[in-house]
């Protein structure tokens, strides 16, 4: 038994050695065949790794921007169109709620001196927002409760607007006009803090003002969007249930008057979408592997034709059909494996370049590597099977006649 196993491995080593010699003897043809597999595996590795890196960065951004929060969006009813200040105080008083941040947005024309900017996004926030995002303010001060209660005309601007309107001048305590209304600049926003100028559902803001002042400018008494901050240790599901009970009572138990969105549901949706995109792109990239497999089959069929006499001679001196089949399968497998390994290398390099250019995290995906190498090996065996079988079925007498 051990002798048979030893002889099998000896034969396999000889087949691999012959395969290497045959590949080296046809360098150009082998190179072109390997190139087809290399391109396919490179595409698969690069796409999967890049999508995974982008997904990880996106998930981290969502988590950091909305950890421990729920978003309430009000559609309202005929009797009640939004949340009043009293309603938000009632929500804040709930045990599961740590605080509420209303969001009121408007587009405005902003000017200072002889310089003006149009279509500027102004967002209304409250003092609690700044207590939860202490890195929001780069210079100056944040909004406080006095600003909220007195509807003061103060604002914080981002650095881009500061450079446009107050170039070379300290903007703190300077005045600017928002839609003709004079505001005093009390702070500059930190652009490096994504929380400072970004609202998940209302987009980025160039200017922050007290939400009560924004309501006054919009001529409304209610807000239609608010972020609910959860008390530590309380689950979002439990808080959602409590909020639903309270909001149902506020809106007289009418249907479709509000919606509550958790960050986890957004993350799940994004992960599902990215997974679908990754699967689709992998499928498209796999077409290149199939094309490479066809190239292997074409090369091996040509090789069988060229080596007909060699096959006939081997059979004449006692080689079994499965000996011949293993020899040709080993050659196609080796070609495909070389292409697969080179594809993994180039795929990782391309992924690194793409991730750096997109600003996402580069993480080696061992699943993608296993998929690429495994797929390339399978392609070599599947597409090399027909030529190998054809070689093993050759009649030795007919094969020797070609000499």
Q: What is the structure about, briefly put?
A:
By secondary structure, the chain is an alpha+beta fold.
> What share of residues is helical?
55-70%
Unreliable stretches covering 5 or more consecutive residues: 194-198
Number of strands: 13
Q: What share of residues are in beta strands?
A: 15-25%
Q: Looking at the structure, what is the overall shape?
A: elongated
| Count of discrete alpha- or pi-helical segments spanning 4 or more residues | 14
| Widest sheet: strand ordering | 3-4-11-6-8-7
Average residue pLDDT:
79
Distance between the termini: 38 Å
Give an account of the 3D structure.
Mean pLDDT is 79; it is low at 194-198. The longest helix is centred in the C-terminal third of the chain and has 44 residues, at 263-306. The chain is 60% helix and 18% strand. The chain is of the alpha+beta class and 403 residues long. It has helices at 2-25, 27-66, 85-92, 127-132, 145-150, 159-165, 194-197, 211-217, 236-250, 263-306, 308-316, 321-358, 366-392, 396-401, and strands spanning 69-74, 97-102, 104-112, 115-125, 137-140, 154-157, 175-178, 181-189, 198-199, 203-204, 207-210, 225-230, 258-262.
Describe the SSE topology.
Blueprint: H1 2-25, H2 27-66, E1 69-74, H3 85-92, E2 97-102, E3 104-112, E4 115-125, H4 127-132, E5 137-140, H5 145-150, E6 154-157, H6 159-165, E7 175-178, E8 181-189, H7 194-197, E9 198-199, E10 203-204, E11 207-210, H8 211-217, E12 225-230, H9 236-250, E13 258-262, H10 263-306, H11 308-316, H12 321-358, H13 366-392, H14 396-401
Parallel strand pairs: 4-11, 6-8
Antiparallel strand pairs: 1-12, 1-13, 2-12, 3-4, 3-7, 5-8, 6-11, 7-8, 9-10
Helix pairs in contact: 1-12, 2-10, 2-12, 2-13, 10-12, 10-13, 12-13
């Amino acid at each position: 038994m051990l002798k048979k196993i030893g002889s099998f491995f000896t034969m396999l080593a000889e087949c691999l050695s012959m395969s290497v010699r045959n590949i080296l003897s046809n360098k150009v043809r082998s190179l072109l065949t390997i190139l087809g597999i290399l391109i396919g595996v490179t595409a698969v590795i690069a796409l999967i790794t890049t999508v995974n890196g982008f997904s990880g960065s996106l998930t981290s951004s969502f988590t950091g921007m909305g950890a421990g929060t729920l978003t309430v969006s009000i559609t309202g009813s005929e009797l009640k169109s939004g949340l009043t200040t009293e309603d938000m105080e009632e929500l804040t008083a709930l045990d599961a709620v740590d605080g509420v941040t209303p969001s009121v947005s408007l587009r405005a024309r902003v000017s200072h001196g002889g310089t003006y900017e149009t279509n500027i996004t102004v967002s209304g926030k409250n003092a609690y927002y700044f207590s939860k995002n202490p890195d929001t303010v780069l210079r100056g001060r944040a909004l406080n409760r006095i600003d909220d209660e007195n509807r003061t005309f103060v604002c914080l601007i981002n650095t881009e607007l500061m450079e446009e309107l107050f170039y070379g001048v300290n903007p703190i305590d300077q005045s600017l006009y928002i839609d003709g209304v004079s505001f005093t600049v009390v702070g500059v926003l930190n652009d490096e803090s994504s929380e400072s100028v970004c609202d998940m559902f209302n987009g980025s803001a160039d200017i922050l003002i007290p939400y009560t002042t924004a309501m006054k400018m919009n001529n409304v008494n209610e807000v239609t969007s608010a972020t609910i901050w959860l008390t530590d240790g309380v689950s979002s599901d439990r808080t959602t249930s409590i909020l639903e009970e309270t909001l149902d009572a506020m809106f007289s138990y009418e249907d479709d008057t509000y919606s509550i969105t958790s960050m986890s549901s957004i993350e799940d949706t994004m992960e599902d979408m990215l997974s679908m995109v990754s699967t689709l792109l992998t499928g498209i990239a796999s077409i290149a592997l199939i094309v490479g497999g066809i190239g292997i089959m074409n090369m091996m069929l040509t090789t069988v034709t060229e080596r007909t006499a060699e096959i006939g001679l081997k059979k004449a001196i006692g080689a079994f059909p499965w000996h011949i089949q293993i020899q040709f399968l080993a050659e196609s497998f080796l070609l495909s494996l070389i292409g697969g390994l080179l594809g993994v290398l180039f795929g990782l390099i391309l992924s690194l370049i793409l991730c750096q250019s997109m600003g996402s995290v580069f993480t080696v995906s061992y699943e993608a590597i296993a998929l690429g190498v495994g797929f390339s090996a399978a392609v070599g065996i599947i597409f090399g099977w027909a030529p190998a079988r054809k070689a093993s079925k050759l009649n030795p007498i007919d094969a020797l006649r070609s000499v």
